[in-house]
Write a structure and sequence with these properties.
2 domains, alpha/beta, binds ligand PMT, Rossmann fold, elongated
């Protein structure tokens, strides 16, 4: 890799220790890594570690100008090909979102014209905090990219989203950034995700086991590939990826309306949502009391959104559906592809271990009009989505 210049910002969180590994790997890839640490970061890891690993001086204090011929933060800002902040605390995110510059790192970032990518790491409640989320959204709207934190055991004792992405993932992100794997640059992708819920009465509904993980992973991958993403999401307990335009819906009819109203603006529709095929004919206005032993609910068909998209799509638009099956996977997937005029269908056997609903992994087969195109063994929905999106970008 040609000598790319990375400004690596390290802020004060326990995950700062992982920055050493990131700096080392980037340096080993031949990149020129210039580290800026906040004062708090130096409480967790020493500047000498970073200096030794990158063979470059580490900047901490804005006023520690050693070379009179240069203003250090402007020099760093001007020569960066990419500014990576890992870990990025809620504090630096807040400062950047509000244009504040009170230390070397924030001053440099404010002065740079280089692309900025933040790898957040913080307590799960801090990550979900509405002010933090608003700051992240504001930055994303202005082109700042994110390397999403992972979920799991956090240093603070909580379990949830907020753990710094693994150094390997962060380095892979940087590599592919420079590889210009922007297969969906300038394209708009609409992705449906999650379940739909169909009201029975004010307290009950019909739904399914979809968690939204597959659709959200696809949205993240599409954003990474440079796409504008419209994420039409049923009710899920996930934080949407920064930068996606999120339309929250509940029932199939609402999802149908949201998808069709955006159809003219998109290059690709990926239907990962698990849409309820039926809904109660009548939605009761009051909670039904259990005064009978049996309760029969008459269901009527919901609109088939994929079918409607297949009917209306233009020549140069791609429609990709999913097939969630429990038997005869190939046969049913091919039937759906044909009937709904899809370009491709991604079939998953939801009875297979590690595949389908709710889990973090999936295993799929992709079919086109000509038959089976590819099979993907069990892997994380994140990795699968990256591979699918790269391939789909090439199909456009
Ligand atoms: O959300 P996760 O927990 O991560 O789980 C992922 C998943 C299993 C939900 C996902 O991988 C998946 O298979 N999504 C499609 C589920 C589904 O509804 O499949 P289906 O075979 O019933 O429908 C076929 C296609 O038609 C789907 O693209 C579906 O979105 C679409 N459809 C179905 C019914 C309907 N009324 N309108 C539709 O558009």
């Amino acid at each position: 890799m040609e000598k790319k210049r990375i400004v690596l910002g390290i802020t004060g969180g326990i995950a700062a220790f992982k920055a050493a590994s990131i700096a080392s790997k980037l340096t080993q890839l031949g990149m020129d890594v210039r580290t800026i640490m906040t004062k708090s970061a130096t409480e967790f890891i020493t500047p000498l570690t970073l200096q030794t690993l990158t063979r470059n001086p580490v900047a901490i204090d804005t006023f520690d100008e050693r070379d009179p011929s240069r203003v250090m933060h402007i020099d760093l800002a001007d020569h960066a090909d990419l500014v990576l902040v890992a870990p990025a605390t809620a504090n630096i995110i807040g400062k950047l979102a509000n244009g504040l510059a009170d230390d070397m790192l924030s001053t440099t970032i404010l002065a740079t014209e280089a692309p900025i990518v933040l790898a957040p790491a913080m307590n799960v409640h801090m990550y979900q905090n509405k002010f933090v989320q608003a700051n992240m959204k504001k930055l994303a709207d202005h082109g700042v990219k994110y390397i999403e934190p992972g979920e799991g055991q956090l240093a603070c004792g909580y379990v949830g989203k907020g753990r710094l992405a693994e150094p390997e993932e962060i380095v892979a992100w940087v590599q592919s950034f420079f590889d210009k794997k922007h297969s969906l640059q300038g394209k708009t992708v609409l992705i449906t995700a999650g379940p739909t819920i169909e009201a029975i009465d004010p307290v009950r509904y019909l739904s399914n086991h979809s968690s939204g993980k597959m659709g959200y992973a696809l949205a993240t991958a599409a954003l990474f590939a440079g796409a504008n993403v419209i994420l039409v999401s049923g009710p899920v307990a996930l934080t949407p990826p920064q930068g996606a335009k999120v339309i929250s819906v509940r029932g199939a009819q609402e999802m149908h309306d949201a998808v069709l109203s955006h159809l003219d603006d998109v290059d690709m529709v990926i239907k990962a949502a698990a849409v309820s095929d039926y809904r109660p004919k009548e939605v009761l206005t009051h909670k039904r009391k259990k005064h009978t032993d049996n309760w029969e609910i008459e269901l009527i068909k919901n609109p088939d959104i994929a079918y409607e998209v297949g009917k209306r799509k233009r020549e140069n638009q791609l429609l990709i559906g999913f097939a969630a099956e429990t038997e005869n996977v190939e046969m049913y997937a091919k039937e759906k592809l044909e009937k709904k005029n899809m370009d491709f269908i991604i079939a998953n056997n939801v009875l297979q271990e590690g595949a389908g609903f709710s889990v973090d992994t999936n295993a799929v087969s992709v079919y086109g009009k000509q038959g089976l195109i590819a099979t993907y063994p069990v892997m994380s929905k994140r990795d699968l989505s990256e591979q699918l999106i790269t391939w789909l970008g090439a199909q456009l």
